[in-house]
Amino acid sequence: MFDSELKKRGLPVKSTTRHSVNQALRIGILFDGTDENDRKIIHKFKKQLTASGKEVRSLAFINNKLPLDNVDYNAYNLRDVNWYGIPTGEKVTQFIEKEFDVLIPVIHRMTLHFEYIIAAAKARLIIGPAVSHAERYFNLISEQNNDDNLENIIQELLSNVSKVVQP
């Protein structure tokens, strides 16, 4: 059902055009924001990217069914994910429709809602950790040292990007 929904929506096949991360001006970050500490780490990462002249948008998944009325960042939760694992809602749609030079899913594991957003995203380059189904969507996969620390995942991603892309 999941794959047929992607095909039905006519989502484009990812481009094989080469892009430099250094030239990227529009960066999207997809992450699990259930843990407050992880949200702080992503906020710090966003500030670093913004300080270097990048336009950064993020979308957080919050693993609960509570109303998100008082949340001051773009987020969706279990209330926004249907039976098939497909996320809905204004914040999700805006994130999917935004054209990114680079999309960075900073995730510990691939879930159907993350997979759908990554597949539907209008990103030229997708860089992420080695999680299930990463090879289907990511242009660059960063091997992790079995570490769930979000700061370490980000540092490993950036380190691997710098090894591949010369300034």
Write the layout of secondary structure elements.
Blueprint: H1 2-8, E1 26-32, H2 36-51, E2 55-62, E3 75-77, H3 90-97, E4 99-106, H4 112-120, E5 122-129, H5 134-137, E6 140-142, H6 150-164
Parallel strand pairs: 1-2, 1-4, 2-3, 4-5, 5-6
Radius of gyration: 15 Å
Low-confidence stretches: none
Sheet/helix structural class: alpha/beta
Q: Into how many domains do the coordinates divide? A: 1
Largest sheet: 6 strands, parallel
Q: What is the approximate shape?
A: globular
Elements, N to C (H/E): HEHEEHEHEHEH
- The beta-strand count equals 6
The residue-averaged pLDDT reads 86
Query: Can you list the strand order of the major beta sheet?
Result: 3-2-1-4-5-6
Helix segment count?
6
Question: Could you tell me the strand content as a percent range?
Answer: 15-25%
CATH topology: Rossmann fold
Q: Oligomer, anyone?
A: single chain
Summarize this structure as a short list of keywords or feature phrases.
single chain, 167 residues, alpha/beta, Rossmann fold, 6 helices, globular
Task: Give an overview of the whole structure.
This protein is α/β, with parallel strands linked by helices and 167 residues long. The protein has one domain (26-164): Rossmann fold (3-Layer(aba) Sandwich). Helices cover 35% and strands 22% of the residues. A six-stranded parallel β-sheet has the order 3-2-1-4-5-6, with helices on both faces. The protein starts with a helix and ends with a helix. The relative contact order is 0.17. The model has no long low-confidence stretch (mean pLDDT 86).
Write a compact overview of the structure shown.
The protein is an alpha/beta fold.
